[in-house]
Amino acid sequence: MKRIGMLTSGGDCQALNAAMRGVVKALVNAAEEVEIYGFLEGYKGLIYGNYRMLTGADFSGILTKGGTILGSSRTPFKTIQEPDENGLNKVEEMKHNYYKLNLNCLVILGGNGTHKTANLLREEGLNVVTLPKTIDNDLWGTDMTFGFQSAVNIATDCIDCIHTTAASHGRVFIVEVMGHKVGWLTLNAGIAGGADIILIPEIPYDIDKIVEAIDRRSKRGSKFTILAVAEGAISKQDAKLSKKEYKEKMKNYKYPSVSYELAEQIKEKTGQDVRVTVPGHTQRGGSPCPYDRVFASRLGSEAGNLILKGEYGFMVGIKNREIIKVPLEDVAGKLKMVSPDASIVQEAKMLGISFGD
Ligand code: F6P
Known about the structure:
The structure is a single chain. The protein is an alpha/beta fold and 357 residues long. It has two domains: 2-147 and 288-331, Rossmann fold; 148-284, 3-Layer(aba) Sandwich (Rossmann fold). 42% of the residues lie in helices and 17% in strands. It has 14 helices and eleven strands. Strand 10 (314-319) and strand 11 (322-327) form a beta hairpin. Helix 1 packs across helix 12, helix 6 crosses helix 7 and helix 8 crosses helix 11. It is elongated. The structure holds 6-O-phosphono-beta-D-fructofuranose.
């Protein structure tokens, strides 16, 4: 008999349910008797003992369902070791609930912040297996996170739709893509959607290079230009600022996001009409794409396998198309960024895509 606690933490994404279903199916099909405790709204559920017992019925019909049946919330790592407003020690409460329920293991699905806390719980002696979720694809130790491909599809659809209207109107269009501090989502959706200019945080931009790229297109007779801009895109000047200076500058920032600042600058320098589209949280919504359903199911299945073998303290990921396990201490606190020298960036440049550098 295995007693498993499960939780989904941080921003949601597609295929969280598919991954949890994979874990449970793998355990049940191995004829292992299991009790599943689902902690609600991420680490909050584990801290405050807010959980419900899940049965087979909870995992039926959820392969294709977006969101998470457990709910999620953000509990930043820096706050996890601070007492709550009533003086409760959150780490001790999580341990207490784990031991009270006599759990064999916690299955934690999350991104970067979630993995830091998962590793802390491992250091505190709890058995933990994690699964890498995030549309940002920025988790170290795995080539891919689930949710990413589904989000690429949505951001690409958005750029595709902009393409038809851009061609009719002859404007400059900016599509702002999520991804937090990394450019994986923008890079992939930008290439897939045929964007002319792709701006990502890892390659700071020069506004004059962007203008040159737009002018080049106009001179060649192209009526429109499409920019895929990562929400974390940054100019060369800003990239030179220290963290403190940048924070100070952002206090008086008058734009809702970088895309609006770029739009103003492009309009001023080219005289062309500019429009901004922000698909925002739609990129995390809806049904997981087939790739993510398969991928999350494979990850869940391997997590089940690790639990059956009693191997804990790992994130299940993928390397060179093979499902692997990575020690949690290696994953926690590291970001996987796009290298400006990566072959995908060089290939995109050879296709004529400008990175504004
Ligand atoms: O980490 C996933 C993500 O969607 C990022 O791409 C984005 O920056 C952030 O979450 C948005 O967070 P929230 O849902 O808290 O607004």
